[in-house]
């Protein structure tokens, strides 16, 4: 998804010019998420995607040349979806630690609504390693930018580095795997509080450090 | 690997009875790690494994029925390898936060020596989902047991739950991906200090919380 326009995009410039085309592309990407999420890349098929999308096979080839190409577009689309879900609820005036708590809450909610995202992004490690890497590098960069901003405002530690962003991202990804994808009976807010409390005070007994 | 005996094991009781058999099995598992790590499950072949191991094809079938079976055995072996690497350097008398720092340092060193572990365990999500899940559930359980022990000793927060263990495990896994597998130019100890500082004090500016 393009964050400025909210429009779905393919990787190779085959952006639809009409509203109807945009809807078709959106349907294809949503169908691809279900098809790849359920069957995995190798077992998934283009006809499985168009059947789910309720579109003709010709519509598929209007936007994509191959199963590989829609998979790559889908990874970018889902990665953009994560970014946009966080962005939509982002409050630049909130305290830095609150911003991180909100970012995780939004991510957990997004993952619950798109449970297939883990399987697809994880499979990208094998099918499309560059997109896999880009997804995490971009996510970590955005988080690091927020951490630096927090440090500049004097709210966060000044020594925070990109490695801290990777650590916090890993925390969020694994909480999502366990408490959004594998089971989702606990409130997203309560799970976000687990991470938030670690970022706020660490795990040492109070008054001991 | 069996943690009591240090002997490699297969999943179905075909444990070698002789020292020579144990060496052959070990060679097959090490060769499988390289073969699956380099080619992925689908492209990897049994002959590729025996060629790397320098063993006859018959030796393979003494221990495994199929490529699937050695893959499953390998995931268990690597998962046990992570556990043993942490166990070997574990000092039960150390302070709890030091134990976690040491556990991460040992994990990072293990991951640097076995860079293929990420690709193999990640691919297990598709090839052998039960082993994938078991690996993380077992790792989180061991960590949670250490956290509870630390809380009992009064060193760690009393409200730490299994979700905190998942959060910390995620931190460690992503630091390993980024700083052990993708690049390893920074010292394992320095990367472990990143996570350790978060667990010690969180990320808020000093004196602000």
TrEMBL record, chains A, B:
The keyword Zinc does not apply. Gene3D superfamilies: Homeodomain-like, Tetracycline Repressor, domain 2. Keywords: DNA-binding. Residues 1-20 are annotated as: Disordered. Residues 22-82 form the HTH tetR-type domain. InterPro entries: Homeodomain-like_sf (IPR009057), HTH-type_Tx_Regulator (IPR050624), HTH_TetR (IPR001647), Tet_transcr_reg_TetR-rel_C_sf (IPR036271). Residues 45-64 bind DNA. Pfam families: TetR_N (PF00440). The keyword Hydrolase does not apply. SUPFAM superfamilies: Homeodomain-like, Tetracyclin repressor-like, C-terminal domain. GO terms for molecular function: DNA binding. This is TetR/AcrR family transcriptional regulator. It comes from Altericroceibacterium spongiae.
